Structures are given as structure tokens and as C-alpha cells.
Amino acid sequence: MSEALAIVHTESSLGWGGQELRILSESRGLARRGHQLTLLCPPEGRLYAEAPAWDLRVVAMPIARKTVAGLLALRRWFGQNRCHVVSTHSSTDSWLSALALASLRDPVPMVRTRHISAPVPRNALSRWLYRRPARIVTTGDALRRDLIERLALEAAKVQSVPTGVDPERYRPGDRRAARAALGLPLDAPIIGIVATLRSWKGHRDLVEALAGMASGALLVIVGDGPQRGALESQIHGLGLQERVRLAGNQRDVVPWLQAFDVFALPSYANEGVPQALLQAMLTGLPCVTTDIGSIGELAANEATALVVPPRDPARLRAALERVLGDQALRQRLGEAARTHCATSMSEARMLDRMEALYREVTSIDQSSPRS
Asked: Is 195 helix (H, G, I), strand (E, B) or coil?
């Protein structure tokens, strides 16, 4: 039997979204395979609060900002605790971890995951940081190609491992039953979005698109975040209070997805392969989205989704009206999306690839855990 790995994840982000969910789902999946998982993150972050509910060990670490205290805390922890590999995620914890490991006499290998498509600066500091890890993981092929080109990285060291989702959990359900349980109208057409309320997710474009629709559709927004106040002002200004439901964060989004007629994600920046879009597709929803980041690995226009230009409410509105008005199109897109995602984007596939990657770097860089 293969030796269990001691895997440590670091995350400096205080927020909540697909990146944090990827860390939790990957960690829980590998823990269930017998590996030892530990999360190091700031105690004031959402990840620290959520980890115990996922049956994961979490350790408070002062790494929300790049400080000497955070660097020394990581160095001390790495030096005193059993560990095979360190997996980093945001810029701050990646810098602190890279420096802490570089200062140790016998460092363990580091893996850096890049979750979003925001451009990495082309400078010496970025090249140093991205050449330190034994491997770099991106959440999509487009991100991988961009990172290799921008920083002149060795292609073999950069691997795309999209976030996977369990197709047995995210699956089509009884729409009317889901709506009844959630208090949603049983017969109105419902457009849904599940996403943290950040500007680049395109919520404002979606609200503007809704304002010009004559179908009487209801928009349900699941999620919370820094743009909530701006969205509420926009909804009020357009007189859409009766047509937009702000549902806030939901621990279980499956019934919400099962209640929608169509899913929209009009992002215009910073996407890898969005988990919410993947979840919606596995639920069999027809989707309207954009070609940002690695969304194209899920959404092929007219095949598995309708793809529209970003920041274009008029084109977004036309696509939504087309889907809502064509039941055959909704069924065709939803079935094709589920088939594609269940085949290529499952959670088991993600775990297989990450487990193999961690074993590869540990076999190259060390044969036994630190004690």
C-alpha cells in the first residue's frame, strides 16, 4: 500500500468563494483517501471557520498580510511539524511559504495553485516566486498557457487540474418541489446565478439585462459579498424589487440550482473554471455565460451553453430570452452540459490528478516525511 502523505495547505485570503471551496473539497477528498491534511490560515478568515465542518484540521496562522511575524510563524511550523508537501494558493501565503521554506536546511517541496485568470506581473519577483515550487497547478488550460508564456516557465512544471464536482450530488431534480421548498414561484420563469457578489462576476450586467426583458422572469441571486449594497441600489433604481430575489449565502446550493430554468454567469474577469457554472451544468441547467479565463473548457457556444460577449447586457438579454422561449434548446443544452462535465470534470478525476502530482513531487524531492 502507498504511504499516506502529510499535505499542508496555506491560504491567506479572508474571503469566500470558489478558491476556498476548492481547498476544502480537495482536502476532504484526499483525507478520505487516507492522507493527513492540515490547513494553515488566518483565524479571522472564513476558511478557518468552515474547515471543522469539513472534518479538516485547521491551524491559526498570522498570514493575512506579508509580515515578518507571518514569515517566522510559518518557518517555525514547517520546521516543527511532520510534512511531505506544502500547497499554497494566494499571493501572500505563497510568498511567505516560499521564503520560509527557502530558509530551512531541509525544505519540503512546494506546490503553487493559481486559481484565477488575472495577469501575473512580468517581472523578476514574479519569476522568482513561480520558479520556486516543484509544480504549479492552474485551474484551467487557458490559465496554464498564459502563465507559461508570461513568465517563461518550463511547461512540464505547470499542470492544469480543474476543480471537480461530484456528479452524484449535483444532478437534475424536481423543479416544482425545489421551488415549493424554497418559497419560489412555481410557474414563473426563473433565471439564477450562484456567485460571490464581486464586480467581475457580472451581476450588474445581469440585472440590467433583466430590466429590458418582457417575459416577466424572476432573477434569483444566491451569494453574498462586497457588491451587495451596489446591487441593491441598482435593483431599487430600476424598480426591480419584485423581480429580483437576493437569497444570500446558502450552505447547500443544490435545491436552488434545481429550482432554476436557466443559469447565468456573465463574468468579465478573473475566472478559472468556475465551480458554480460546473455545478449548474451538472444539474442539467442550460447556461448563458462568457468566454473568460477557462470558462471555454466548460461552455462551448451552441453545444453545451450559449456564450455571449462580456459587459454586453443587450446580448446577454437576447440569449436569456432565447433560452427561456425554447424548451427544446433548454433540454439539449442541459443534457449536453451534464454529459460533458460528468465525463471530464468530476471530483474523483481532480483528486486522482492532485494525488498523483503530490506523490510525484514528494518522490522527487524527499523520500520520507519530516518529523
From this structure: coil
